[in-house]
Amino acid sequence: MSRIDSCIAAAKAAGRKALIPYIVAGDPDGDTTVSLMHQLVQDGADIIELGMPFSDPSSDGAIIQLGAERALRNGAGLDTVFSVVRQFREQDNNTPVVLMGYLNPVETMGYQAFVEQSAKAGVDGLLLVDLPVSEAESLLALTRPRDMNVIFLVAPTTTDKRIASICEHSSGYIYYVSLKGVTGAALSDTGEIAQRVAGLRSATDLPIMVGFGIKDTASALAMAAVSDGVIVGSALVQKIGELSETAARDAGLIADSTALIASIRQALDSESA
Amino acid sequence: MSVSETVATPEQDLFSGPDLAGHFGRYGGVFVGETLMAAVEELDQVYRKLSQDPKFWQEYDHDMKHYVGRPSPLYLAERLTAKYGGAKIILKREDLNHTGAHKINNTIGQALLAKFMGKPRIIAETGAGQHGVASATVAARLGLECHVYMGAEDVQRQAANVYRMKLLGANVIPVTSGSRTLKDALNEALRDWATNVDSTYYIIGTVAGPHPYPMLVRDFQAIIGREARAQSLEEYGKLPDALVACVGGGSNAIGLFHPFLRDSEVAMYGVEAGGDGVETGRHAAPLSAGKPGVLHGNRTYVMSDERGQIVETHSVSAGLDYPGVGPEHSWLKDIKRVNYVSVTDTEALDAFRALTRLEGIIPALESAHAIAYACKLAATMSPEQTIVVNLSGRGDKDIHTVADIDGITI
Q1: Which residue of A163, B27, B376, B381 pairs with B327 in a disulfide if CB–CB is 3.0 to 4.6 A?
Q2: What is the 3-state secondary structure (H, E, C) of chain A?
Q3: B52 within some domain
């Protein structure tokens, strides 16, 4: 059982919906990212998705692209990502960390080095948005022997045939993309999403997390009601963008920038209570 | 061209790619976000079916003849040859096509696919604006809604083409993210496609992107090489000794090269944009100086730094200013079937002026790269030998760029 598996199982046993914030590693710098991660755990995050900055994030909207650009301007790369996770692990050995990003930096480093360094740093899962299952065998061959989960996306457009293959190769959880579009877009018809997630349930026993377009407590509650948990990215990265404009990043400012996560946690827990 | 010539041969060899999953050796494939996977798979199925249908190619050939004005001539550049040859320099006149470049060969073909798939809305990315104009043109002709993504830098550099697109009824969207050039226009087009995937057909302008684009764009551009092959045999009684074409994404080059790949006596040169010189790092030559990676849906040579971040490219020619290249070129480089070389901005500008003054033909700055290399190559070859150069586009769109460099305000 991976750290992700036990984390989600524990949440389920406690009747909690999982809350998964996404932030970009190195935005605005590595040390701040580590502080943000600890704050997110305090705010009630169950798992943290850590974005690996990339120059051409074509599945992301403008907000996350700007976050990646801030990180890249400060020289962030995969080294920064691993060092952020290592520092985080010095104080937190429980919260699962999933790396999310694009393939080119990984191919540049090499799959083997990437998987080994991820494992060594304390990463629990990998999600590469432009690596579909059909091209993923070289990566999966390296992760299978380890406690390293590989998470794939399912979209509103995904065919049943693809769903079967995605579920077969996924571990940890399934990331259901709530909408046709990019991260940070407006959420569409929740009824349709509920139906799609229900359909997914019949194809897999893996937990299903919903992401894209969740930007406040209302949308988080609506999506959590039909799934095992929610992923919140753009709304949080937007706040961190404001943080990057100030030099004095004290604990108060860090907490302010993640306040959305605390309020979503509260809303989710009072709903399930 | 007859139908039989357009159907892929069943022969399996180094040149029969891509495989069913879109691979040319280790290159190509499908690397896009899950939201687009279904659309890409659907396009693959539709194209596989239609490309086996003689009626589809009859319609394409009809449009090529009556709308584009094909076949384009093969023209012996006598004064250019007298100055630089050696070998005879012969131009494949894609600049004479309707809209002024080879891009229309592809947009006509893809518009037929869009029509068949019942998509009312098309999107395209463009660098120099030639593909944007060619897309806006077919959209106007078919009454389709058309949106063209163009880097904000390129909107400045290519104002005339922006206005042409607007006249044709297209909506030109300046892209201000990232480096504000062609690669960012591609990112933005992919985002649009993911958002409007049900209604939208994405006309990619080059032999890049996820499978099946590198295959189908090549098939639509291969008319260049099929004609050049037949014209060469007819007019010179032999195949050319060498082919030269510029390579940005690589569609005009693969179009010329592909029908000759199995003719081992024909040497091939793909000319990348050397910018200030490949050694300066300021260029757009991924095959000459990049390494394999994944960008915009396929595995191919890309220009990226040691962290795997895509780097900004530099070229006087907006149409070559792209950090990736079609995956089939990456394969042809690795198996050493095609020689990939580069020429600098300065050499391309010199060739632009030489062709204009010696032959009365103003070439696109993209095509001027091919001319520049062909002149160098011709000098090393003998007068009985022939070089076919793809004159992929005309240079009217570039006169402001050249005037600027000369310090002249038009």
Answers
A1: B27
A2: CCHHHHHHHHHHHCCCCEEEEEEECCCCCHHHHHHHHHHHHHHCCCCEEEECCCCCCCCCCHHHHHHHHHHHHCCCCHHHHHHHHHHHHHHCCCCCEEEEECHHHHHHHCHHHHHHHHHHHCCCEEEECCCCHHHCHHHHHHHCCCCCEECCEECCCCCHHHHHHHHHHCCCCEEEECCCCCCCCCCCCHHHHHHHHHHHHCCCCCCEEEECCCCCHHHHHHHHCCCCEEEECHHHHHHHHHHCCCCCCCHHHHHHHCHHHHHHHHHHHHHHC
A3: no
Task: Give the count of domains, chain B.
Answer: 1
pLDDT value at residue A273: 61
Domain that holds residue B326: 67-100+222-406
Fill in the amino acid letter for A177: V
Domain tally, chain A = 1
Tokens encoding B390: 């793809």
pTM, two decimal places? 0.95
Closest CA to B23 of B49, B52, B53, B44: B44
What angle in degrees, to the nearest 10, is found between the helix axes of B103-117 and B130-142? Answer: 40
Interface-testing mutation among A133, A138, A157, A210, with chain B (most B C-beta atoms within 10 A): A157
Residue B146 falls inside a structural domain: no
Chain B residue with the nearest C-alpha to that of A104: B294
The Cα–Cα gap between A117 and A83 comes to 10
Q: Is the CB of A133 inside 8 Å of chain B's CB atoms?
A: no
Q: What is the CATH number of the domain that holds B312?
A: 3.40.50.1100
Its ipTM equals 0.95
With CA atoms as reference, the chain A residue closest to B39 would be A157
Q: Residue A28: which domain range?
A: 3-272
Q: What is the dihedral of CA B251, B257, B259, B261, to 10 degrees?
A: -130
pLDDT in tens, A155-183: 999 999 999 999 999 999 999 999 998 88
Does the annotation mark A124 as catalytic? Answer: no
The share of chain B scoring above pLDDT 70, in percent, equals: 97
Residue B127 included in any domain: no
- DSSP bridge pairs for B75: B91
Are B187 and A57 inside 8 Å of each other by CB? Answer: yes
Contact A155 B35 (CB under 8 A): yes
Minimum CA–CA partner of A58 in chain B: B187
Does residue A60 have an active-site annotation? yes
Give the CATH number, domain containing residue A196: 3.20.20.70
Orientation of helix B327-334 relative to helix B213-221, angle to 10° = 80
Cβ contact B296–A154 (<8 Å): no
